[in-house]
């Protein structure tokens, strides 16, 4: 662009998915239950984006669709204006300016000068909640204590402040999700531990799966507490969504966010639900996703039920679910000879490859060293995803997809994926350092004839879909081929109808090159790279294994039990 044409920034502050500045480092649970337009204070991330972009622009006109991004608007208005020439913030760092702006926000707009420190701490805490694993989050406990202290110091008139109530809603909403996810993992992990301890090919019969199912079944409360979107005549696929717990902690937290949603509607007409007049779950009615399945309770119940039916009598989707489960169960219990060298569910990197089991995956090389830019990203770095694949999440604003989720047809490991969305990133790679992937292997002889294989899950047409306003645009997976160190792994594959596992052996030439160079390089190339857009993408990758298969092994790479 010629220098005579200055640029004005136009940042999208209100959206967190399918947007200009999407969230890519949050826990999958938040992605499923916040959708696109939730309450989203991101002050430190916005600070870093402003630092990076402001020198190239002459100001900004921020894009917003309501009040959910109120903190972000305040941050951009203050920090993008420029440095103070005099006064207490003269020559202050941008970090100190941000802190001062947030204290002013708390003192003036929230009318809380006495506890402004706690408010600011809470705002930073809400942002931190969205970075990293939810179930192991130490920040969650700290934020709950800060929130409790804030509430203890509120007078009746303070409870009329909509900005404060909005932040309180987010805090309790996060706490509810954390509690639900913890309960879900407690149930599924207990069930799977029983299976792992007792499983053999001989006793994997009806009684075995019935016992396991009794562990994983989290009872529903009666009468059901339903959310508005599935009572709405405008929803095509209406289903009943009930509370996933009888424990008072979940019930009390749900009552709290329910009450705050009603208060916010009364105060400012905030439409957190279709029941309050919102257009759609994608358009701000994210409270209607409060009972979205965020763990693997539904999935495991479906698998354990399907395992009591002969394989020939199972529906296609149930056979796919059983294949995914049994493949990993056989490897976990030593019933298959394949050795997992590396595994990741992209978007849920800390998850085990056996859905619902609470343990770390086999991952000697962290995911951030495997995918571009092959290091940890800084907060706010590459916000528009120009230099890497987008970490995408299941679109729960699509009614049919959301119905599949509640029916147990989508394990947690298939609810997020890597998706290149620009021509410049369409041909993408993963790098695996060989001395960490295969320690002690310095020549082909050290493999003793063993095969190195890749097993992966490409998203099919059933899950690679948009919802809400984007649904009419459709989404297509482009035919994609795969290489390993320059050697073809598979030719162009078309998008499958149903998401399921695929397996491929790597050629000896590819492995020999990887050993010599010290790096295994997997590469994907779409058929029409220049045609890649957000609507027309290379096959999205939900999960990937690297396996070592002994030369004498007869174990399949995918179980067909």
Structure description:
This protein is of the alpha+beta class and 561 residues long. Helix content is 35%, strand content 12%. It has 15 helices and twelve strands. The strands form four sheets. A four-stranded antiparallel beta sheet has the order 1-12-5-9, covered by helices on one side. The protein has a four-stranded antiparallel beta sheet with strand order 4-10-7-8. Helix 10 (297-306) packs across helix 11. Mean pLDDT is 90; it is low at 219-248.
Write the layout of secondary structure elements.
Blueprint: H1 28-34, H2 43-53, H3 70-79, H4 94-109, H5 116-129, H6 138-152, H7 162-198, H8 206-216, H9 248-268, H10 297-306, H11 316-332, E1 339-345, H12 367-370, E2 390-393, H13 399-406, E3 416-419, E4 428-433, H14 434-437, E5 451-458, E6 476-478, E7 480-484, E8 487-493, E9 500-505, H15 508-517, E10 519-526, E11 536-538, E12 541-549
Parallel strand pairs: 6-11
Antiparallel strand pairs: 1-12, 2-3, 4-10, 5-9, 5-12, 7-8, 7-10
Helix pairs in contact: 2-3, 3-4, 4-5, 5-6, 5-7, 6-7, 7-8, 7-9, 8-10, 10-11
Shape: globular
Unreliable parts:
219-248
Tell me the number of helical segments per DSSP (H or I, 4 or more residues long). 15
| Spatial strand sequence of the major β-sheet | 1-12-5-9
Please state the average pLDDT score. Answer: 90
The total strand number stands at 12
Major sheet summary line: 4 strands, antiparallel
What is the alpha-carbon Rg in Å?
Answer: 25 Å
How are helices and strands ordered from N to C? Answer: HHHHHHHHHHHEHEHEEHEEEEEHEEE
Q: Work out the helicity level.
A: 25-40%
- Structural class, judged by helices and strands? alpha+beta
Assess the beta-strand content as a share of residues.
5-15%
Span from first to last CA? 60 Å
Q: Give the quaternary arrangement of the chains.
A: single chain
């Amino acid at each position: 662009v010629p220098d005579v044409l200055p640029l004005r920034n136009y940042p999208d502050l209100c959206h967190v998915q399918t947007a200009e500045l999407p969230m890519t480092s949050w826990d999958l649970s938040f992605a499923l239950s916040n959708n696109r337009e939730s309450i989203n204070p991101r002050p430190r991330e916005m600070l870093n984006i402003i630092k990076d972009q402001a020198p190239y622009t002459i100001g900004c006109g921020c894009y917003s669709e309501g009040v959910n991004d109120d903190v972000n608007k305040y941050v951009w208005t203050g920090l993008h204006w420029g440095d103070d020439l005099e006064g207490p913030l003269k020559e202050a760092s941008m970090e100190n300016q941000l802190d001062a702006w947030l204290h002013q926000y708390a003192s003036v707009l929230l009318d809380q000068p006495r506890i402004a420190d706690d408010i600011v701490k809470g705002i930073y805490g809400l942002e931190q909640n969205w970075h990293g694993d939810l179930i192991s989050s130490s920040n969650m406990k700290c934020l709950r204590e800060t929130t409790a202290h804030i509430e203890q110091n509120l007078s009746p008139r303070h409870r009329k402040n909509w900005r404060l109530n909005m932040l309180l809603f987010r805090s309790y909403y996060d706490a509810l999700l954390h509690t639900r996810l913890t309960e879900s993992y407690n149930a599924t992990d207990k069930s799977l531990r029983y299976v792992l301890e007792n499983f053999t090919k001989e006793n994997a019969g009806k009684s075995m799966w019935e016992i396991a199912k009794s562990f994983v079944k989290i009872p529903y409360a009666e009468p059901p507490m339903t959310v508005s979107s599935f009572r709405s005549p405008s929803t095509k696929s209406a289903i009943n969504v009930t509370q996933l717990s009888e424990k008072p902690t979940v019930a009390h937290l749900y009552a709290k966010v329910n009450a705050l949603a009603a208060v916010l509607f009364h105060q400012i007409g905030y439409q957190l639900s279709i029941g309050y007049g919102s257009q759609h779950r994608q358009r701000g009615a994210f409270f209607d996703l409060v009972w979205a399945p965020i763990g693997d309770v539904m999935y495991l119940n479906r698998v354990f039920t399907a395992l009591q039916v002969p394989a020939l009598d199972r529906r296609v989707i149930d056979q796919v679910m059983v294949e995914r489960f049994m493949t990993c169960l056989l490897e976990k219990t030593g019933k298959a000879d394949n050795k997992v060298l590396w595994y990741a569910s992209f978007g849920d990197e800390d998850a085990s490859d056996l859905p619902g089991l609470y343990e770390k995956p086999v991952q000697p090389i962290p995911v951030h060293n495997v995918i571009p830019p092959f290091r940890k990203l800084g907060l706010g770095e590459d916000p528009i995803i120009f230099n890497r694949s987008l970490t995408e999440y299941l679109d729960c604003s699509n009614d049919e997809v959301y119905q599949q989720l509640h029916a147990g047809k989508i394990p947690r490991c298939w609810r997020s994926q890597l998706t290149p969305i620009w021509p410049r990133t369409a041909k993408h790679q993963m790098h695996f350092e060989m001395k960490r992937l295969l320690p002690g292997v310095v020549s082909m002889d050290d493999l003793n004839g063993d095969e190195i294989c890749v097993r992966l899950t490409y998203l099919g047409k059933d899950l690679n879909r948009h919802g809400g306003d984007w649904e009419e645009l459709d989404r297509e997976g482009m035919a994609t081929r795969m290489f390993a160190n320059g050697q073809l792994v598979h030719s162009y594959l078309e998008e499958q109808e149903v998401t399921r596992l695929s397996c491929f052996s790597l050629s000896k030439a590819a492995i020999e090159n990887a050993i010599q160079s010290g790096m295994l390089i997997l590469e994907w190339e779409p058929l029409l790279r220049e045609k890649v857009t957000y609507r027309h993408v290379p096959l999205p990758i939900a999960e990937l294994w690297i396996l070592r298969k002994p030369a004498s092994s007869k174990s399949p790479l995918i179980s067909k039990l």
